[in-house]
Amino acid sequence: MTGLTPYLHFDGTARAALTFYQSVFGGEVGLNTFGEFGRDDGPADAIAHGMLRGAVELFAADVGAGESALRLDGVMFSLLGTAAPAELERWFAALAAGGGTIVDPLQPRPWGAHDGQVTDRFGVPWLIGYEV
């Protein structure tokens, strides 16, 4: 793997988040629990390390005792031009579904591109778009 890969820390929802992201982006999910890693600072079935490998790659874990969970402000995950336009449109709709929020609809822009912003059900903001 090369490049930047976000590592998200969730408050008990890492398994659900990675499963959701796999349903959106495809790929393979790998999960390791606190119990498997011999950690006792959280529930044995909590995720100590998880990853999504595929077109979009993410790492995620549940926080242990005393650790801070995900809080995002002033940042978006940008998927500009990372797939075919139809795939990006599908990703946008899937991220908005089931409790996500469309911040700015995916639409044509005056400069010729299409883009939009959505915050998914886990509070992760995304910028998705493409050139025509």
List the helices and strands and how they pair.
Blueprint: E1 7-10, H1 14-25, E2 28-33, E3 47-53, E4 58-62, E5 77-80, H2 85-96, E6 101-108, E7 113-119, E8 125-131
Parallel strand pairs: 1-4, 5-8
Antiparallel strand pairs: 2-3, 3-4, 6-7, 7-8
Helix pairs in contact: 1-2
Largest sheet: 4 strands, mixed
Helical stretch tally: 2
The order of strands across the largest sheet is 1-4-3-2
**Share of helix, binned:** 10-25%
Number of strands: 8
Low-confidence stretches: none
Mean pLDDT reading: 96
- N- to C-terminal separation? 29 Å
Could you say how many structural domains there are in total? Answer: 2
In N-to-C order, the SSE pattern is EHEEEEHEEE
The SS-based structural class is alpha/beta
Q: Tell me the β content.
A: 35-45%
| Rg of Cα set | 16 Å
What is the approximate shape?
elongated
